[in-house]
Each structure stands twice: as C-alpha cells, then as structure tokens.
Design brief:
The structure is a homodimer.
Chain A: E1 5-7, E2 12-15, H1 22-27, E3 33-38, H2 42-45, H3 48-58, E4 62-66, H4 75-87, E5 92-97, H5 99-111, H6 118-124, E6 136-140, E7 152-157, E8 162-167, E9 176-179, H7 189-207, H8 215-236, H9 241-254, H10 268-280, H11 284-299, H12 304-315, H13 324-341, H14 358-364, H15 377-386
Parallel strand pairs in A: 2-9, 3-4, 3-5, 5-6, 6-9
Antiparallel strand pairs in A: 7-8
Chain lengths: 388, 388
C-alpha cells in the first residue's frame, strides 16, 4: 500500500548537449560572488573549467575558487570551504563535478553560517538546518549518486574514522543542475561501470522491501530495464550518446526521492559496502557489486514474492512450469550474468578484503530494519564469506 | 534519443489518508483572503467542504466562495471568477474538486489581473503570462487530468464554440496539492472508469511517438502496468485503497511533464476525442476509449517497432514464433479485451455520434504531426467509421 508521504522536489534541471548555456539565465538570480567548487582537475582536462569561468566572467561575477574536493570529501575540507564561503560572503556555490563535489557543496552550504560545530549538529545529531543556507547550482560531470537533485551529503571525518551520510530537506537541494551527458564521456570505464551499479543498487535497495503492488515498484522496474539496456550499450561504446543520456537521466530519478515514496526501503547493501570501503578504500559502486549477489541470494527466501516478481518483470524469466524459488533464483542468476558482462568486480577479495577483516567489517556495519530480514553480525560474516 | 529539455516541477504534494491536515501548514504561507473554488457540490456530500471551511476559519482566513464550476469550465464563468478574485484582492485560490476545478482556477489565476482580454491573450495567442499570478492550492477529489501538478487549463468559449487547452509554465502550477485517495471513492463508477482511461490515454499519447529506447518510454511502461493492474482491482472493488491510491499517483505522473521529457508526442486520440465531445458532450475519457483501438490499429503499420515493444513489455505477449505484425496485433487485442473488462464505452455510436456528424468532426479535429502518421481528413473519417 502507498503510505502517507510528502513529495517536493524543486530542483530545476537543464538536460542535454546544449544545457550549459542556461547557466547564463540562472546566474541572473544570484549576487555577484560565486564560489567555484570542483575536484582534482578533470574539468580542466575536458575544457569545462574554461567554459564555466568565461560564462561567470561574462555575467560580471567575482569567482572564489575551492578546488581539490576528494572522492570521499573530508570534514577538514568542509571547514576550509566554510571559511572561504563566509569570509567572502558568497552568494552562490557552483559545484562542477560528480556526486562528491555536490555532496561537499551541500555540507558547506549549511555549515558556513552554523554557529556551533556543524559536524556535531548536522551529521551526528542530524538536526534541522536553522541557519542561513547558501544556494547551490550544480554542473554534473559524473553520474551515479543522484546528488544533483536530492539532499544527500556524505562526509568523512578522518579523525574519528566516521563516514556519515545525511539527507537534507528540499531547502538544501541544488536550485538548478545542468546535466550534459557529453561531460560523462571522460569518466574512465571502471568508474563508469561502478557508477552504473551504484544507480542499480539505489533502485534495488528501494525495490526489495515491502510486498505491495504499488506504482512505485512499477516505476523502479521501468528504470531498471532502461538501465540494463543502456549500460550494455555504453560498455561496448562509451560514446553512445543515447545510452549515456539514458544512464544519466535514470541516475537522477533513481535517487531523487520519487521511487521511495509511500514504501519502505532496505539499504543493507549500501551499509555493508560502506563498511568495506572504510577498510579498503575500494570504489563505492564496486563494493556494492561485490556484495549484492550473495546478499540477495541470502535474503531471497524472506522476500520470495518480490524476488519472483523481479525475475519476471525485470529479467524476463519465463515462469511456466517452475516453482517460485526456481523463478526467483533464475532472476538472480541472470542479474549475476549481466553484472559479469558489464565488467563489475564480483568478489570482495579483488577489492582488498581479507578474512581477518570480517569481524571488523561486520561490527562497523550499520544494521537497518527496512528489508526482508534484519541481519545479525553472524549473518553479515556469513554473507562476507560468500562474497570472497 | 533523449533530446534537450528543461524539467522543473515545484508543486508540493501531500499524499495519503492524513494529507488534509497539511493544509494548516500551507495556509501560513499566504495572506488572509482565500477564494474557495469548487464544483456542483459533491464536496459537500462527502463532508469535505465542512472540513476545509473549518480549517480555513481556524487559521483566521476570510473566505470568498466561487462554487458551481462545470465539467467543461466556460469562459463566462472565468470572467465571473476574475471579478471575485480582483474585487476582493484574494491571496490564494483554493481549488477543491477534480481537474475542471483546477483548470478553471488556473484560468482565474492568470486572468484576474490581465489588462486585456485574457481569452485572446492566453488561450488564442498563447502569450507568456506577464501580469500578477494568484497562487493556487489544490485539494483533489477526482483523478485523471493531472491538473494538480501541471500547467494545463482547458476552457470552453460557448459563444465561439471553442474548447482550448493551454499549458502554462511552472509559475502557474499549483503551489501545493493535497491528494487523498479516499476522496475519490465518491466518484460514480462510470466516471472512475472514464478517468482511468484518460490516464491511460495520456501515457499512450506520449509513448506512441519516436522509435527510441529512452528511459522515458520505460517509465511509461511501468506506469501502464501499474494502471492496468490497479484498475482491474478498482473496478471489482472501488473501495480498495491500494488500487485507488495507485491510480491517483499514476494519474499525477502520467501528465506532470516527466514522461514527455526528451521525446516527441502524438495526442491525436485526444484531438479526435475533443472533436467528438463538441458534437455530443460525451464524457472525455469515454471519447478517448471509443476512438483508441481503431486509431491505434490504423497507425500500427507506421510505428510497428513501438507497437511490438508495447505488446511485449506492457501486455506480456510472448513473441516466440510470431511476426512483428502478429505480436503488435496481439498487444492491441489484449488492450481491447482489458478495456471491455473494465467497462469502457467501445464505440462512438453509444456516445451519440451519428454518421452525418463525421464530416464535421473530421473538419473540427485539430491535426497534429507528432505521431507515426499525419492523418488526412479522409483518414479521420475512415477511423470514425471503424469506431462505430
């Protein structure tokens, strides 16, 4: 059943090959001082940096640069960014890059004018934001996290070894995001494939929970089918515009709150994946890939009806003459086959996990209760063994 | 291929059995004077009128009533509404009802402060709105048009016999909409089924155009599958909350601009349906139902690839050992069977059309060019014959 919910997503999206030109229109809505946030410089290699700086200057903006955002943005970096934003009284944060740059920009946006320690207030105590929020605009160059149209912000405290994901409300969402699939061409294939599985995992974590026939699940099935189709094309030809644009658009809708509306969610693959990342620094999407098949095989009996539906509606398994278990199992077999085909890492050994880490990973996994089975620490260790 | 587009939909939705309480929160954002727009009084029968008036009074609002909005809102009524809004300087238009009430409220919203004739400016010349817009809130009691989360506004000029649909931009969308599936229980079965087919037709008119594998088409397939499933349940038991809530949610997403993004659209079933309405005053959804199967059978050869895909992905046609034509045809056969099962009117004779009207209907049909085949007047007459 569709539960009660509020849906509100006011991010304005400009999509397509020509979308950068709309930055001119958007800049008119903000003051003169723009903080330009980006990562390790890939936006310079593809020429985007020069284009953006030119548009900013043409619009009479004063630019305050904040480069060097790392794949897992640190709290230390956030404190630095807050100083830049506050001291220069910036009117807009322009995040140019992937999910990390966007996540980081949200942290700076809410923290710059926070009168106490923002880590404690917004990431530990998860309080509502009640100070000035600096508006954010985003130019996306990597796809996967959906950060361009949501309130998600994952920040790592290297001192306490905590990586915490906070989901802020719509007042923190980017005011606008520019999505040009061409920018994603420069992402190396390993990262592209990891990003694709991150998207798939977002969809599956919201799908494998509840037993209802609600519209949300049907939308997820549509998005999954599109992603499977487009990813197979993109792996063969990363410059296939149709495929890359569909992947980019699917990523946005996989995690912009729509497909979670009115239903429960699981997220245990992400929880185990995060714990593995903390021990190995492996690429996020690959930790999800290496964990998914053993995890889903393990919980399948507890959510058999949904796994059967998944096999038929997403993987075209012909149910005739088969038991529910056989149908569900065949669905996961096809998923595994697809994952190998597009080149995902299928075991945690290849990500640097050794058996002596199992206890630690299981202990640091945050256990949620939205899925078909609430896992014990022992069950997590069993799953980790199956992931080797 | 996903073309260039802008997506921006800032309507805030409150969904579920408890959603009316959020009206209290929303009212705080607007001034004291509220114009209360509704239809022929069904909201009084279900007790909603009293509840809404109580909430308005509890929040200290002054109420200006504008009842009696008809199924096809007239321009004359719009002029009256404008006078009420302008003379009382209202701060918010609260539309309580179905799509007609919402469409009408949008017309008043943009027209009250228009310095020339709003019909000429906004419905004939389709100009951008450049005067004061009165904000709208919506409490939905009937589902189908999607007017709760879009800029659509269909108004009838009885003097010139013109029924014109204008799609305004996001600045005219309702600021908030309250969607409580329980309110839709009171709709008579004939209207419920007509509304269901209106939703299906919105999805199909956006689906049957272009030959691409884009994400949008996959989302439409998901929404169609959900609608087919839920409508079968709702016809047997109109008070099945799960089914009615899914239908309500599907209606919103079928026409809130998402599934049109990046693609072309058809809309000829609506065009022929509107022309039939003008001659017979038949219920909108039923005109679409009576026209759809003959229309789609006629254009099938021109968009065979998509009709084949439709048969397999939406109607579960097994393609093995069949030609593309056979697969596509089987899909439309199953659609027809489904339509008869849920009780739709399947021919235009039953809607009051007689053969002597053919010429006139064909002549007054607005011919669009987004579908697989641009129709001539003769082809429309041929299709109308098939609809008898």
């Amino acid at each position: 059943m569709l539960g009660n919910f509020v849906y509100y997503n006011p991010t304005k999206l400009y999509f397509g090959q020509d979308s950068l030109k709309y930055l001119n229109d958007e800049l008119k809505n903000y003051g003169k001082k723009v903080m330009l946030v980006y990562g390790k410089g890939s936006i310079k290699k593809i020429g985007l940096y020069d284009e953006v700086v030119k548009i900013l200057k043409d619009n009479g903006k004063e630019i305050f640069e904040d480069p060097g955002v790392m794949p897992n943005p640190t709290l230390e970096k956030v404190y630095d960014g807050c100083r830049i934003a506050r001291e220069n009284n910036v009117d807009l944060i322009l995040a140019v890059g992937g999910g990390s740059v966007c996540d980081y920009s949200k942290a700076v946006s809410v923290s710059a004018y926070c009168e106490e320690d923002p880590w404690e207030k917004y990431y530990i105590r998860m309080e509502e934001v009640n100070n000035k929020i600096i508006p954010i605009g985003c130019i996306l160059t990597m796809t996967g996290t959906g950060s361009e149209m949501n309130g998600g912000s994952v920040i790592t405290n290297t001192e306490t070894k905590q990586k915490i994901g906070r989901v802020f409300g719509p007042e923190v969402f980017p005011k606008f995001s520019i999505l040009n699939p061409l920018y994603t061409y420069s992402v190396p294939k390993y990262q592209m494939v990891a990003g694709i599985f991150d998207i798939m995992s977002h969809l599956l974590e919201q799908y494998f929970s509840g037993e209802d026939d609600n519209t949300t699940d049907y939308i997820i099935e549509g998005l999954l089918r599109s992603l499977i189709h487009s990813s197979k094309v993109a792996v063969k030809n990363p410059e296939d515009y149709e495929a890359r644009s569909n992947i980019m658009w699917t990523a946005t809708w996989a995690l912009n709150t729509l497909v979670a509306k009115g239903k429960t969610e699981d997220w245990m693959v992400h929880m185990i994946g995060h714990a593995i990342s903390a021990y190995t620094d492996a690429t996020h999407g690959m930790t999800l890939a290496a964990v998914s098949i053993p995890y889903y095989r393990y919980i399948m009996p507890y959510g058999l009806k949904k796994f059967k539906r998944y096999a038929i509606n997403v993987w075209n398994v012909n149910p005739e003459g088969k038991t529910d278990e056989e149908i569900a199992k065949e669905g996961l077999d096809r998923m595994e086959e697809y994952m190998r085909e597009i080149g995902l890492v299928m075991n945690i050994r290849d990500l640097g996990v050794t058996e002596d880490m199992f206890e630690g990973i299981a202990k640091s996994t945050f256990i949620l209760d939205g899925g078909y089975k609430v896992l014990s620490r022992e069950e997590i260790i069993k799953i980790l063994k199956d992931c080797m």
